[in-house]
């Protein structure tokens, strides 16, 4: 049965992927996505912002998927042969999953699992920019910094990514982006940077302060 896409997305069929596989080393271990921010996990804040923008959503994470059961989303692990491939391994697994499960999807929007303030126009602006530039990917920028994991990727990139990851030894997101046609879209970084990352206990405290002002 084909998925029911949101007609507000126009011709785009965007699947959101939360890259939730990173270990929260500077937060003492565990999953950053499951750390409490206010009265909800960080992941709940991310999903609240992604759901209106994406036709479907899945998580990319390794380990026991049952820890995410409460969210009712597919959990996509990295391919075993890409163990140690970092975020690019998660991206490849996600692109492959979307291509197999949602055949009429046109793109994947990846976001890190520690960014609770994502902008409401993220998918729309990245999609429009990639179409205008005829680019294979579009990345978000703020405060002069490119956010390589907050990006829209065309599904056709999975073949090039597989070669880069498994045959060319490319493991850094920036290195992969340097080899494809990509465009960047700027967002205002104030008063709250929409791509603020929760990496440390101090970041979690700051995120709670910012949340209370929104």
Account of the protein in words:
The N and C termini lie far apart (40 Å). The strands form two sheets. This protein has a seven-stranded mixed sheet, sandwiched between helices. A two-stranded antiparallel ribbon has the order 2-3. A hairpin with a 2-residue loop joins strand 2 (36-37) and strand 3. The chain is α/β, with parallel strands linked by helices and 214 residues long. Helix 2 runs antiparallel to helix 4 (157-166). It has helices spanning 42-50, 87-101, 122-133, 157-166, 173-177, 201-213, and strands at residues 14-19, 36-37, 40-41, 56-60, 75-76, 107-112, 137-142, 145-154, 182-187. It has one domain (11-213): Spore Coat Polysaccharide Biosynthesis Protein SpsA, Chain A (Alpha-Beta Complex), CATH 3.90.550. Residues 1-9 have low confidence and may be disordered.
CATH superfamily: Spore Coat Polysaccharide Biosynthesis Protein SpsA, Chain A
CATH class call: Alpha Beta
Strand content: 15-25%
Q: Domains counted in the coordinates: how many?
A: 1
Question: Mean pLDDT score, rounded?
Answer: 90
Task: Give structural attributes.
214 residues, alpha/beta, Spore Coat Polysaccharide Biosynthesis Protein SpsA, Chain A, seven-stranded mixed sheet, two-stranded antiparallel ribbon, disordered N terminus
SSE blueprint:
Elements: E1 14-19, E2 36-37, E3 40-41, H1 42-50, E4 56-60, E5 75-76, H2 87-101, E6 107-112, H3 122-133, E7 137-142, E8 145-154, H4 157-166, H5 173-177, E9 182-187, H6 201-213
Helix pairs in contact: 2-4
């Amino acid at each position: 049965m084909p998925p029911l896409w949101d007609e507000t997305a126009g011709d785009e069929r965007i699947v959101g992927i939360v890259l939730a596989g990173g270990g929260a080393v500077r937060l003492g271990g565990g999953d950053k996505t499951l750390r409490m921010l206010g009265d909800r996990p960080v992941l709940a804040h991310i999903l609240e912002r992604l759901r209106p923008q994406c036709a479907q959503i899945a998580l990319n994470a390794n380990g026991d998927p049952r820890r995410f059961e409460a969210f009712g989303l597919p959990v996509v692990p990295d391919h075993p042969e890409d163990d140690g491939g970092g975020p690019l391994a998660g991206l490849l697994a996600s692109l492959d999953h979307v291509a197999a499960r949602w055949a009429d999807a046109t793109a994947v929007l990846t976001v890190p699992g520690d960014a609770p303030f994502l902008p409401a126009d993220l998918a729309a602006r990245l999609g429009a920019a990639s179409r205008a530039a005829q680019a294979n990917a579009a990345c978000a920028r703020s405060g002069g910094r490119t956010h390589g994991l907050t990006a829209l990727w065309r599904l056709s990139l999975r073949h090039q990514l597989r070669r880069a990851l498994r045959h060319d030894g490319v493991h850094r997101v920036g290195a992969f982006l340097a080899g494809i046609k990509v465009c960047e879209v700027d967002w205002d970084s104030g008063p709250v940077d929409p791509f603020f990352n929760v990496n440390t206990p101090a970041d979690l405290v700051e995120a709670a302060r910012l949340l209370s002002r929104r």
